[in-house]
Amino acid sequence: MRRLIYLVAVSADGFIADLEGGADAFAPRPETLERQFREYPETCPAHARDALGVTAIPRHFDTVVMGSRTHLPALEAGLASGYPHLRQLVVTHRRDLPAAPGLTFVHEDPVGAVRALKREQGRDIWLCGGSDLASQLAGEIDELHLKVHPFLLGDGLPLARRAPLTRMRLLGSEPLGAGMAAEPLRTTRPDPPDQPSTRSSPGPQCRTTSRAGTTRTQDERPAGACLHGVGQTRPRAPSRVRARRRSTCPGATRTRRPSSVEQAARCRSSAVPRPWPCQASSTSTNAVASPQPPASSAAIAPIRPGPLTTTR
Q: pTM score, two decimals?
């Protein structure tokens, strides 16, 4: 299936343009342009292809999707479209934009339009911008290819305005020169969680043993019995019945708690110092394991955070 790849220049603090939509701060240098168009020749706009000598055929994309603000600079330059060598989809509410060969206007449901493109045969789809459109298509973006510029813009249009939480995995980082770096990221979409079933999954079973000696396992319990977090509720038994029950789940042990008389007898013993509550005694056979008392403050080494410095 074709992928939707968001390839865009971005500042180090995550902005793709200033508040007015201008991208003057992202003016590329000749050495970075040559490297970029050698890898992505189809991303060079029509009005700059002759000046930069870009004549290669598309390598990664055959379709570009953009918003109306991204499309307007080509119109202001006197062109009918910015990328006539690609199939172009412009997502806009405007109805007065001039038509051009290979140019399609999407006035509603951009998500459905992109999904239809993905089902077609061809190269990947380039999401050119802008911020609002990227937030609408966040669930369809398969990869981010960021051209990170080495400056802080401070404020402006973010990479994807009001986008939902989308986790991604960094695929690598490649220097482009002039302090820039190319950082591709791939979307990680986990499988939806399984729906809770009406029966417990295979595993250690719990059993309840009454004083009479009868044992009932979990699978033998009637409907409505406790299934340990599977969504059913165990009816509350009378207090005299609850007092006779004892849990024998695997891995869980219950030891008789010493009485207050036994604890007092241990504390009065001269051979054993007064323990913390429920502290194990080396001379008692009925000792119950418990945490050791804390060490003195002098023996605790303070934890000091390491210094943080800015890398320039």
A: 0.60
